[in-house]
Backbone:
């Protein structure tokens, strides 16, 4: 997919925000550790992605009621839905001075359109060696979902089914979309939010 930049300024994809709080000691410490164990930038990106995908549980998968939002909060509790997990991955990458942003898909909430729709969050990261952006989905794998880091072609969690009204939004956002943050901040129970409180379009 050809991404469309929300901002023409590369520095905007390196900024800290309330949700991408990469100056938090926990984020700084994690990033330093991942950097120290990586041989190069691509190796670091791969490790950061795998950490968020595999070590941070998806709240729905574990049927947790807790809602996390900021990167540091998500790391503290080691769980979050895709909105929170994308905040964490973005924070780790930006802490390492690697441009990263947010991308979104509109998916069916269940397997078919009659179940309704929800917005799904993923990330894009700039690969300096190739001078291009790639998308990464750190939602978390499980039977039927096998996302991975790939330079040769996207391996995302969900294929888009246009015949079902699903959408791959092309915009590369510099900050989490306000609708996703409003959902996280506006609910007290994750399971209820996941079923009834996620935005269904951008």
Residues:
């Amino acid at each position: 997919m050809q991404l469309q930049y929300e901002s023409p300024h590369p520095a905007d994809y390196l900024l800290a925000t309330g949700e991408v709080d990469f100056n938090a000691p926990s984020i700084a410490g994690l990033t330093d550790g991942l950097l120290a164990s990586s041989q190069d930038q691509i190796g670091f990106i791969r490790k950061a992605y795998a950490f968020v995908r595999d070590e941070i549980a998806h709240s729905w998968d574990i049927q947790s009621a807790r809602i996390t939002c900021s990167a540091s909060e998500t790391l503290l509790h080691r769980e979050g839905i895709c909105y929170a997990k994308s905040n964490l991955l973005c924070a780790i990458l930006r802490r390492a001075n690697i441009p990263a942003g947010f991308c979104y898909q509109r998916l069916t909430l269940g397997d078919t359109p009659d179940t309704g729709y929800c917005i799904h969050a993923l990330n894009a990261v700039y690969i300096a060696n190739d001078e291009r952006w790639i998308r990464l989905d750190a939602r978390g794998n499980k039977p039927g979902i096998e996302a991975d880091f790939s330079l040769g072609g996207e391996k995302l969690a969900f294929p888009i089914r246009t015949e079902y009204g699903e959408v791959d939004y092309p915009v590369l956002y510099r900050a989490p979309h306000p609708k996703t943050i409003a959902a996280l901040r506006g609910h007290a129970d994750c399971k209820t939010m996941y079923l009834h409180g996620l935005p269904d379009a951008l």
In short: Residues 30 and 92 are 8 Å apart (CA to CA).
